Amino acid sequence: MGIFLIFFGWLFIVGSGVYGVLKIKAFNKSGAKEFDKPFLRTMGIGLGVAAVGGILSNIGYALQGKWPIDPGHYVMLLIGAPVFYAAVLAFFVTFYFRYWRTDMADKCRKNNSLVMIVSIPLALFAFLLAGEGMGPYLTYPLVKGFAINNQGWVWLRPDTYTSGGLQIVWYGVLIVGAAVLAYKISDHHFYQKYGRHGIIDTCFLIAFPCGILGARIWYVVGNWNGDVGGIVPFAERFARGEWWSIFAIWEGGLTILGGAVGGILGGVLYMLLKRRYVDIRFAIDAIVPTILLAQAIGRFGNFFNHEVYGNLTMMDQWPLLPTWIKYNMAVSWSGGQPVFDPVSKTIGGVTYTGNMYVPLFLIEALLNFLGYFIIMYLVPKGYGFLAKKITKKEDGGALALAMGDKLGFYLIWYGVVRIIMEPLRDPDFNMGTNGMWSFWNSMVYIILGAVVIVAMQLWAYIRRRKGLPVEMGGYIPEKVVAEGPKEAPVIKKKDDHKNDFAKPASVKKPSDLDKPKPIKRNTDKEEE
Description:
Layout: H1 2-30, H2 37-64, H3 71-100, H4 106-134, E1 145-149, E2 152-156, E3 166-169, H5 170-194, H6 201-222, H7 234-239, H8 256-274, H9 280-287, H10 290-305, E4 312-313, H11 323-328, E5 333-334, E6 337-338, E7 343-347, E8 350-354, E9 356-357, H12 360-391, H13 405-421, H14 437-465, H15 478-482
Antiparallel strand pairs: 1-2, 1-3, 4-9, 5-6, 7-8
C-alpha cells in the first residue's frame, strides 16, 4: 500500500509540473499580456494536483516505513507536504513570468511578483513543518546518494561503502544544480539589459572548471606541509614520487575560497577577451553575487556526506534546530537512530564533549543566502539613500554605488563569514600546520574586497571627470540584437541609459566601444 501511494503521489507531483509547463507555453503562444480567468483556473488545478500528490506520497512514506507516528507529527506531515509542493510549483511559474516575460501588463506583473515573493517563505515554512513531522522516524545517517552495480540498486550512506557500477551522490547533484541556478540568474540580468539569452553560456562553461581547478590548487597549497588533522603532507607524497596525488580530487580536498577565486578569474578573462561589448564591471555585478547562492546550496552536500562539520556539542543546546538536521549531525548511530550518549576527544590540549557536531554547513549556507540578498538589493538601496543624505544630491554624487563594487562587497562578506566559522570548525578540518590557513586567507579576502571597491570608485570618478561615459561598451552590436530571442526581448540601444546596476551616459565616440566581430547565429543561444 505504501509503495502504491508513493508512486501515485509522485505521479501527481510530476504531472502537475508538466501540466504547468504546457499551459505556460500555450499562454505564451497566445501573446496575452494578462492572466485571464481560464488560465488562473488551470494553474489552480495544477497547484491542487501537486498538493494531493504531496499528501499521498508522505502517507506512503509513513506506511512503507511502518513509522510509529503520533497524531501531532501526522498533522505536521499532512499540512506541510501539500503546502510545500503547491508553493514550489507556484514559485517556478511566477519566477518564469517575472524574469522571462518582460512585456506583461504592469498590474499583472506586480501581482505575479507578489505571489513569487510570498511563495518562497511559504515553501520554506512548509518544508520545515513536513520535515519535523517525519524527522524522528527517518533512518540515519540520511542517504547521500545511490549506486547501480552488480548488487542492483544500492542506497549510499556516509557510514556504508560500495564499489563499482554507476554512483550518483547528492553532493555532485547539488554542486551542478547550484552552478546552473547561478548561471540562470546571471543570464537573466544580461537578458534584461541586452534582450538576449546565452551571452554568458561559454563563460559559464569556462568558469566552472576554473573554479574546480582553483579549489584544488588552494587546498594543495594550504596542506602542502600537512594540517592539524593529520593529513599526509603533499610535500611528502610528492617526494615519494606520488605527484599524481595533487590531482586526486576523488579523494576529497576542495576549498571554496580557492574555487571562488578560480571561477571569477576564468570568467573575467573570458569576458574581457570574447565579450568586449559588455562592460566587465556590469558582468561582475551580474554574476559574482550569485556565487554566494551556489556556495550556500553546495554546503548541503557536506551535510549529506557528513563532513566538514564543527566542534562537538549537545543536541539539547540547539532546541530550534530541525530534528532531521540534529539527528544527521550525530556523532554516531545505532539501528538507524542517533546515539545520545556524549563522547569526548582532545585536540591540541583542548577537550570537546557532545553527541552531535555543530552544523557548520547550515551556518554558512544561511549567511551566504543572507549575503546574496544584502549585496544584490539592500546595498544598492542603502548606498543610494545614505549618499543622497550625505551629499544632498539626487544621484548621490561621488558616493554613488559604482559598477563593479559588488565584487568588493562579495569578497568582504565571504571573508567575514569564514572568520565567523573558523572558531566553530572541528580542528581536524583546519588547513595548515597551525590551523590558521583559512583565517589568514579570509583576511586577504576582506582587504582585497576593500581595494576593489576603492578601485571601482576611482575608475568611475576618473571617467566622470574626463567626460567619458560611465559604462564602456554598454550595448550589444546591432546584428547580434537582431538575431536575439523571439520572446519579446527588451532591446537596449546606444542611447538607452537604463541599467540594472548603474546609469551610464550615452556612448558618443566609436572608439569607446571596442566592438567585437558580430556573432553569427540562428538561435537565441550562444554558439562558439
